[in-house]
Each structure stands twice: as structure tokens, then as C-alpha cells.
């Protein structure tokens, strides 16, 4: 089994804690750092930019950028700038966004699926250095071409939970980023739907990012049970992992067996030491994820 092991910096922790998490994750030898963009909390692109600048090796992903909040041209400019500045280390993901938040922001659309299709199609072409002219239902571009497109190919991911969005991900995207509070069976079903969408157009979906909500230390089970409702999850459904390195490694393996190629550990809101959690993941959990040949997870 080969799965990338990372940590998620979620908006239950203040933006100023990001530097601690990013540098600790890199020092611990983790593969990935995933940042979020939740309304009206933290900017995903600002967080990713800072984390990339503070580190040298770790891959930084955004899960995800809500497409109604940004024009396609601006999104392409922002992604291309980071991709050129930190080649091979940045993974952008886009999606619908939470519809109630889009309504609050005054950008909710009648057909989120149509917008996502138009946005991803045009964004992919722009990042590939093409000149794009399109007049869709929502995306309108007139002879737009990036002056500084990425110098290496950018892996463009999308995220979502509904079957049509998952199928669209398989059809158009390079990877799938999933919601944070899912069981292994939820992940398995989502991956199957996305891969069916990919197969229908003769392509593959190589990457899937899943999240494991984790509590360690004293009262770990109680803390996990208290955390999950924050994300609309039932603690009785077998979501997340509580305990020591063995329990967390088992949770990562379960998500990998369900189809995840990258798993990010999400700390609870009351996690007292984010740097130590990152160190613990590298020191104690990562070795337990070695494959049968004895190789460590997350090889590039």
C-alpha cells in the first residue's frame, strides 16, 4: 500500500498557527499540507502561498476554492503564479462551495454543476497556455491567454459529494478531494462514482484526497465524539480515529483501502499542540504505514 500522509490546517485553528503547522509538518517528513478556504474564515490561496514560502519540500494543497467567488481568469492567474514560483509543490482544487455561503456572498448560481464544468474547462486550458474564448452560461472569456503560464503541468483537482459532481470530477479533473467527515465506505462509493465518470470518457482518475479527523492523548474518544458534530457527522458512524499511533495508522489504511491515494490528518479544534501532532505523525504513524516490501509511504 502506498498512500501520501499529510496534515490539514483547518479553520477551527487561527491563521497565525499555520506557520507552526507547515514547518513542523515539513520537519516531520510528512508528504502534504492541506489548507482550507471556508467562508468567512481563511483564504485558501493566501494560506497556500505562505505555507509554500515557509517550506522547501512539502506539497501544499487547497481543498477547495469555491468557483462562484472568483472569475476564471483571476483563478488562473493566481494558480499559475504559485505553480511557477513553487513548481511541483502546489495542488489547487476547485468546487461548488457551500451554497448557503455562496448566497450570503451574493454569488450563488442556479446551476452549480454548469458553472463548475465551464470553470474547470476554461481554467484547464488557460493553465495549459492556450488562448481561450468562450461564452457559456456563466464563464465568458474573450481571447484570454496567460502571459506567464505554468512551466510544468499543474494537477487540477475538484471536490464535491453529489454523484453528478463526482462524475464530473472523473470526466475533467486530475484528482478528487473529498469532504472531511466520511467513513471508508463513503470514500469507496465516492471513488467508484468518480472513476465511472472517468472511464466513460476513456480516462483515469489517478489521485484521491481523503481526510481523517483524529484525536490523541487523554480523553481521545470523547474529544473525537465532540468534534464530529461540528462537521455535521454522527460519531456513531465510524468516522475518524481516536487513540495512539496504531489506531491512527489503521484509520489511514482503511481510507487508503477505500481508494484514497493521499490522507490528511485533521486535528480537533481543541488540539493543544499542533507541532507535536505533526511530529508524532512523522515519528510514530508514518512507519506503521510501510508497505509489505518495507518501503515508506508517500514516495514522489
What order do the helices and strands come in, and which of them pair?
Layout: E1 4-9, H1 18-27, E2 32-35, H2 44-54, E3 59-62, E4 65-66, H3 72-85, E5 90-91, E6 93-95, H4 99-104, H5 112-127, E7 132-135, E8 140-144, E9 157-159, H6 163-172, E10 175-177, H7 184-200, E11 207-215, H8 220-227, E12 241-242, H9 245-257, E13 262-267, H10 274-285
Helix pairs in contact: 1-2, 1-10, 3-5, 5-6, 6-7, 9-10
Organism: Isoptericola sediminis
Domain Luciferase-like: 14-260
Pfam families: Bac_luciferase
What does this structure look like?
This is LLM class flavin-dependent oxidoreductase. Keywords: Oxidoreductase. The protein is α/β, with parallel strands linked by helices and 300 residues long. It has one domain: Alpha-Beta Barrel (TIM Barrel). Helix content is 39%, strand content 18%. The protein contains 10 helices and 13 strands. It has helices at residues 18-27, 44-54, 72-85, 99-104, 112-127, 163-172, 184-200, 220-227, 245-257, 274-285, and strands at residues 4-9, 32-35, 59-62, 65-66, 90-91, 93-95, 132-135, 140-144, 157-159, 175-177, 207-215, 241-242, 262-267. Strands 1, 2, 3, 4, 5, 6, 9, 10, 11, 12 and 13 form an 11-stranded parallel sheet that branches. A two-stranded antiparallel sheet has the order 7-8. Strand 9 (157-159), helix 6 (163-172) and strand 10 form a beta-alpha-beta unit. It is globular. Residues 292-296 have low confidence and may be disordered.
Amino acid at each position: 500500500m502506498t498512500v501520501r500522509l499529510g496534515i490539514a490546517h483547518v479553520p477551527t485553528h487561527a491563521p497565525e498557527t499555520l506557520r507552526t503547522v507547515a514547518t513542523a509538518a515539513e520537519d516531520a517528513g510528512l508528504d502534504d499540507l492541506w489548507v482550507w478556504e471556508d467562508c468567512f474564515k481563511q483564504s485558501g490561496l493566501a494560506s497556500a502561498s505562505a505555507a509554500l514560502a515557509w517550506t522547501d519540500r512539502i506539497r501544499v494543497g487547497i481543498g477547495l476554492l469555491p468557483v462562484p467567488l472568483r472569475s476564471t481568469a483571476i483563478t488562473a492567474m493566481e494558480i499559475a503564479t504559485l505553480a511557477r514560483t513553487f513548481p511541483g509543490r502546489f495542488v489547487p482544487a476547485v468546487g461548488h462551495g457551500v451554497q448557503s455561503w455562496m448566497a450570503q456572498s451574493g454569488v450563488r448560481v442556479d446551476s452549480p454543476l454548469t458553472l463548475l464544468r465551464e470553470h474547470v474547462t476554461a481554467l484547464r486550458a488557460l493553465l495549459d497556455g492556450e488562448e481561450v474564448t468562450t461564452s457559456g452560461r456563466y464563464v465568458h472569456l474573450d481571447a484570454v491567454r496567460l502571459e506567464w503560464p505554468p512551466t510544468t503541468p499543474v494537477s487540477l483537482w475538484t471536490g464535491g459529494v453529489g454523484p453528478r459532481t463526482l462524475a464530473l470530477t472523473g470526466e475533467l479533473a486530475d484528482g478528487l478531494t473529498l469532504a472531511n467527515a466520511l467513513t471508508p465506505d463513503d470514500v469507496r462509493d465516492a471513488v467508484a462514482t468518480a472513476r465511472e465518470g472517468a472511464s466513460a470518457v476513456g480516462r483515469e482518475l489517478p489521485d484521491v484526497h481523503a481526510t481523517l479527523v483524529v484525536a490523541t492523548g487523554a480523553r481521545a474518544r470523547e474529544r473525537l465524539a465532540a468534534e464530529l458534530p461540528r462537521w455535521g457527522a454522527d460519531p456513531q458512524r465510524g468516522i475518524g480515529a481516536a487513540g495512539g499511533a496504531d489506531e491512527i495508522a489503521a484509520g489511514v489504511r482503511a481510507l487508503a483501502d477505500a481508494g484514497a491515494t493521499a490522507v490528511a490528518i485533521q486535528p480537533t479544534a481543541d488540539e493543544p499542540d499542533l507541532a507535536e501532532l505533526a511530529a508524532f505523525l512523522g515519528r510514530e504513524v508514518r512507519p506503521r504505514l510501510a508497505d509489505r516490501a518495507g518501503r515508506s509511504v508517500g514516495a514522489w
